[in-house]
Amino acid sequence: MSLHFVSSFETIHKFKKSRYFRNNLGLVATVENNGKRTYNEKDKFSFFYNNRYRTTIYAQGNIGDIKFYTDHYIKDSTFAAFHGDNFEEFLFKFNDEIEMIKGIDFYLGKVIKEVEEKYEEKVKADEFKKIEPKVDGNANIILKNPGSATYADVKAYLKAKQEDRYKNKT
Predict the structure, then answer these.
(1) Could you give the CA distance from residue 72 to residue 56 in angstroms, rounded to a whole number?
(2) Are 148 and 141 in contact, with CB atoms under 8 Å apart?
(3) Measured at the alpha carbon of residue 21, what is the angle toward residues 96 and 27, in degrees to the nearest 5?
(4) Among 12, 117, 118, 140, which residue's Cβ finds the most Cβ atoms within 10 Å?
(5) Residues 110 and 157 in one domain
(6) CA 25 – CA 70 distance, rounded (Å)
(7) How many domains does one find in the chain?
(8) Of 143 and 54, more confident
């Protein structure tokens, strides 16, 4: 499991209060390639984030295999947690109350647990979508009751009409 947190500079400083946080400035954002500066593809998450949001993020550190990045274009206390190798995104608003009462380590544990639960729900929902068969439309509904026709019914009607057109020509 890999987790990546991206937030504003102020929110990262709140995460840095954790006793497990280690400063790690990561890899350089761009490298020279044949006389041109290109984005560094070795840091896969940073490369993904740059391509998706068109902004450069800067590594700040890590807690185990959880990496923290700063995006200077995030102006509020919202932070994003990206889970897994396909970087599923989950947005959170930093809760100062929980952090003040229970501590930053408790808050991070709570956020990680929520991310894992949401990720599991998303995986189950994706599997359910794959299993769910697509319903074919009924071409006769358009002639019998046009008001209750769906888009699938219209597609089926047009397909049937197209097939009949070619049958009559031969």
Answers:
(1) 8
(2) yes
(3) 115
(4) 12
(5) no
(6) 11
(7) 2
(8) 54
Residue whose pair of structure tokens reads 């102006």 in the numeric block: 75
One domain for residues 14 and 93: yes
C-alpha of 107 from chain center: 21
Give per-residue pLDDT as tens, 59-113: 999 999 999 999 999 999 999 999 988 899 999 999 999 999 999 999 999 999 9
CA angle 75, 16, 100 (to 5 degrees): 80
Do 62 and 140 lie in a common domain?
no
Tokens of 76: 């509020």
Which band of pLDDT confidence, cut at 50, 70 and 90, is reported for residue 158?
A: confident
Residue of higher predicted confidence among 160 and 134: 160
Tracing tokens 């509020």 back to the chain, one arrives at 76
User: For residue 148, what is the DSSP state?
Assistant: G
Quote the DSSP letter at residue 170: -
Which residues span the domain enclosing 95? 3-131
Cα angle 118, 24, 12 (rounded to 5 degrees) comes to 55
- The 8-class DSSP code of residue 137 comes to P
Quick one: which of 50, 51, 71, 52 has its CA closest to 60? 71
Q: Looking at 9-132, which runs of residues are DSSP E strands?
A: 22-23, 30-33, 36-39, 58-63, 66-70, 78-83, 88-93
